[in-house]
Amino acid sequence: MLTNMPKSKLTPKQLLLYVCVETDPEQLQTLSGIEEAVRGHILEHVSPEIGNFLSKPAAAPVPDENVPSKASLGN
Question: For 46-68, what is the mean pLDDT?
Fold first, then answer.
């Protein structure tokens, strides 16, 4: 059900369900196990999305068409 959907489009409740379904139930019995499972899913699914977003080239700056006035130059 959730495996066909892009992970970046899931709601928080769907993400929680995904983590619960895709994680060994024994691992979800302790806080440290939950933390480890969530960290693993973040590294596997979220970090690559962040990397893709950050690797996109920045938009070229728009050249300033305003001519500086004498007041802004301090004269």
Answer: 78
**How many other CB atoms are found less than 10 A from the CB of residue 14?**
14
What is the C-alpha separation between 38 and 28, in angstroms, rounded? 10
Q: pTM higher than 0.70 for the full model?
A: no
Classify residue 41 by burial, with Cβ atoms within 10 Å: 0-12, 13-18, 19+.
Answer: middle
The pLDDT > 70 percentage for the chain reads 75
CB burial class (10 A; 0-12, 13-18, 19+) of residue 58?
A: exposed
Cα(14)–Cα(33) distance, rounded to whole angstroms? Answer: 20
Tokens of 8: 């970046």
